[in-house]
Write a structure and sequence with these properties.
By secondary structure, this protein is of the alpha/beta class. The longest helix has 17 residues. The protein is 38% helix and 16% strand. The protein is built from nine helices and ten strands. A seven-stranded mixed beta sheet has the order 4-3-6-7-8-9-10. A three-stranded parallel beta sheet has the order 1-2-5. The protein has a single domain, classed as Metal-dependent hydrolases (TIM Barrel, Alpha-Beta Barrel), CATH 3.20.20.140. Strand 8, helix 5 and strand 9 form a beta-alpha-beta unit. The chain starts with a strand and ends in a 32-residue tail after the last helix.
Length: 270
């Protein structure tokens, strides 16, 4: 029997960001999560100043309310608080004040760099957070438009003590060939700390964790899949250190080119 899956990055909460627009949509997405084998979901609504001004208290209230709705609907999914926090200069200050949430009330923080602009000195930024006692997790680096030109820098974040969270859909082609290429490269270099769904909608942005797990097992084996789908998400929940890959460095960076010509992305109804 396969171990339960913890989803460390998903947008399940209704009407709080660009996730489900109604309670009905949220319940459908949660039901599909259970079908994927997910038993625990860390709800990570966006925190983007001026766009999604979610706070720790607001997320806690939303999680508690939606947990009640799940109980009424007999959907066996346990929710935890969290957020996907856009990187800004005041994140450390707001974390210390308790204004924005960590993952599952612990030390891990899910951080989203801007997709189209490479911020300077992110290594120092992550280092300062680590020194302050937080453990940065970089959300979907493979989907950053500048990632392909700075892959060595991104892999270097792991050496500092940060972790990389790849989106399940990227591995199966849902976000296009470049995200697929980068996701598989990070996977095969051992740089991926964990895989999460980043699910937003039952059809337009589904979980795809099951599809991604089967692919990961085929590419790098059951042991590595267990590390990034089961052991490390559970470690985030428990506040324990993440397990690092034992296959890092097997593929040199000067071979950061591989063809996706014969890879057919999964088609999902939108």
């Amino acid at each position: 029997m396969r171990a339960a899956i913890v989803d460390c990055h998903c947008h399940l909460l209704p009407e709080i960001d660009d996730g489900p627009g109604s309670l009905r949509d949220a319940l459908k997405l949660a039901s599909l999560a259970v079908e994927e084998g997910i038993t625990d979901a860390i709800c990570t609504p966006h925190v983007v100043p001026g766009v999604y001004n979610n706070t720790t208290e607001a997320v806690r209230i939303a999680v508690a309310a939606f947990q009640c709705e799940l109980s009424r609907a007999a959907i066996p999914l346990t929710l935890h608080t969290g957020a996907e926090i856009r990187i800004t200069g005041d994140v450390e200050t707001r974390l210390k004040r308790g204004e924005i949430p960590t993952l599952a009330e612990g030390r891990y923080v899910l951080l989203e760099p801007p997709a189209d602009v490479r911020l300077p000195r992110l290594d120092a930024y992550f280092g300062a957070l680590i020194e302050a006692g937080y453990l940065p997790i970089v959300a979907h680096p493979e989907r950053l438009l500048w990632a392909g030109r700075h892959i060595e820098e991104i892999i270097g974040y792991v050496g500092l003590g940060a972790h990389l969270q790849v989106t399940a859909g990227s591995l199966v082609g849902f976000f296009g060939r470049e995200a697929l290429r980068l996701a598989r490269w990070l996977l095969e270099t051992g740089a991926v700390g964990l895989i999460a769904s980043d699910a937003h909608h039952a059809s337009r942005r589904p979980h795809l964790l099951g599809d991604a797990r089967r692919l990961v097992e085929a590419l790098v084996g059951w042991r590595e899949a267990e590390r990034i789908f089961v052991a490390n998400p559970q470690a985030v929940l428990a506040g324990h250190p993440l397990v690092l890959s034992d296959q890092g460095g097997r593929r040199p960076l000067n071979k950061f080119r591989f063809s996706t010509q014969f890879i057919r992305p999964i088609e999902v109804a939108r």
